[in-house]
Design goal:
The chain is an alpha/beta fold and about 425 residues long. It has two domains: about 220 residues, Glycogen Phosphorylase B (Rossmann fold); about 180 residues, Glycogen Phosphorylase B (Rossmann fold, 3-Layer(aba) Sandwich). Helices cover about 45% and strands about 15% of the residues. A seven-stranded parallel beta sheet has the order 3-2-1-4-5-6-7, with helices on both faces. The relative contact order is 0.12. Keywords: Transferase.
């Protein structure tokens, strides 16, 4: 018979197979938790069929990386029938959390995304206490970009005070509140201040006092010391050569600036000898494929929609330049830029990006910065990256790697959980 765990971490997020940096972050924090002394880690997330129905970009189901032993992924079934459309899935998650919070195991619960995950944790904690059973849970809520740009900001702009108050009060009800970047924190505070100005509330002051920064956690070991022979082999399987392509690898949405990259690629003479590889899935995939097909460089533009987490580092390491020309959109602003930090870890060509949102915190001084909506500048940056002498390129790459190592999952985990006072005591070997 298995003994009851001494401590447990529960992570509530949109987990694999969703293509999302914070899906990967949840995985990385789960793995770090095992290394840091948690006996059991449970990721409570959504059923596959529900994720498929949302239209979210998903990884190939048969190519997801396995989790380590000790990490249990739970996808609670919906509660009720079709008359309760989305609420029945949320009820399944909340119900499972109540069970985990009342089984006697000291638990830390981390939610990524305020809506709906932190809201679900708030309801679960309240319900757990109402049972009269012993509850020993510490909650941490991490606010990410779309929490603000897609939910809080839209509430402010539409005058939907009740929805904004619900979100912010659920966030502040957690024991510890963090944001993925200083930019995200300031955006939350500014949005809360607008709500306060109209309704006489005091959300901004509380947010300013309580929110601290926890940058996204990356498994740096995936990107470091890659075998050059393996890199060449992975590229060859895709019909690619080292330094023979410009790479975009992220979600295919308007906010990522892929249209500007295609236009920029058309304007650099390097398109005569390089390919443009656009890797990812997303809601704008079809329209971007149509745009590329109409390009005079159409025969030099390739789309890859089946890249998994294992292949990603090798594609990054082999590229001549990595370009992510993000731009602010009403529905999304890049509030960190996990893929940029991953590219800096992998090496390869220079990172070319914009100063949108929190990108500056991700790249520091180690990227070529171009203006938003400026294909000419993208072309010029590609040309500049290709013109770097090999020794300067190598030196820049090494400095970028050192910067990105601060996002190692172990480093991030220790800062986050030590700051919350919930690191478990390690058993002596």
């Amino acid at each position: 018979m298995n003994s009851k765990p001494r401590n447990r971490l529960v992570i509530v997020n949109r987990a694999d197979p969703v293509i999302c940096g914070h899906s990967v972050e949840g995985r990385n924090l789960a793995e770090a938790a095992l290394e840091r002394g948690f006996d059991e880690v449970r990721i409570v997330t959504w059923p596959i069929e529900r994720l498929e129905a949302t239209g979210l970009p998903l990884k190939p189901l048969d190519r997801m990386l396995p989790y380590s032993d000790g990490i249990i992924v739970e996808r609670p079934e919906p509660v009720g029938d079709y008359k309760v459309p989305d609420g029945r899935y949320l009820a399944g998650i909340i119900g499972r959390l109540v069970e985990l919070f009342t089984d006697g195991v000291p638990t830390v619960c981390l939610s990524l995304y305020l809506s709906p995950h932190t809201v679900a944790v708030t309801d679960a904690v309240r319900a757990a206490w109402s049972t009269g059973l012993p509850v020993n849970v510490t909650t941490i809520a991490e606010a990410v970009g779309s929490d603000v740009t897609n939910v809080v900001r839209s509430c402010v702009e539409q005058g939907r005070f009740g929805a904004a108050a619900h979100m912010l009060s659920s966030y502040l009800a957690q024991d510890h509140c963090v944001a993925v970047s200083e930019y995200t924190r300031e955006l939350i505070v500014a949005s809360a201040a607008e709500i306060d100005a109209f309704h006489g509330t005091r959300f901004a002051e509380q947010c300013r006092e309580r929110i601290r920064i926890s940058y996204p956690a990356i498994d740096t070991s995936q990107y470091l010391d890659l075998d050059p022979v393996l890199v060449d082999g992975v590229l060859a399987a895709r019909g690619l050569e080292r330094d023979g392509y410009v790479l975009f690898l992220s979600r295919l949405t308007k906010a990522k600036g892929v249209d500007d990259l295609i236009a920029g690629f058309e304007r650099t003479p390097a398109n005569q000898r390089l390919q443009l590889v656009i890797a990812g899935r997303g809601p704008d995939a079809e329209s971007l494929r149509e745009l590329a097909a109409a390009s005079p460089c159409a025969d030099r533009i390739a789309f890859l929609d089946d890249v998994d987490d294992a292949e990603k580092p090798y594609l990054m390491a082999g590229c001549a330049a990595y370009v992510l020309p993000s731009k602010p959109r009403p529905e999304f602003v890049e509030t960190f830029g996990i893929a940029l930090a991953e590219q800096m870890l992998a090496g390869g060509g220079a990172v070319i990006t914009t100063e949108t949102g929190g990108i500056g915190e991700a790249v520091g001084e180690h990227a070529m910065i171009v203006p938003v909506d400026d294909p000419d500048s993208i072309a010029a940056a590609i040309d500049a990256a290709l013109a770097l002498p090999p020794e300067e390129r190598a030196a820049r790459a090494e400095r970028a790697r050192v910067h990105a190592l601060q996002f190692d999952r172990g480093v991030v985990f220790d800062r986050l959980f030590d700051g919350a006072g919930v690191l478990p005591e390690r058993t002596p070997a």
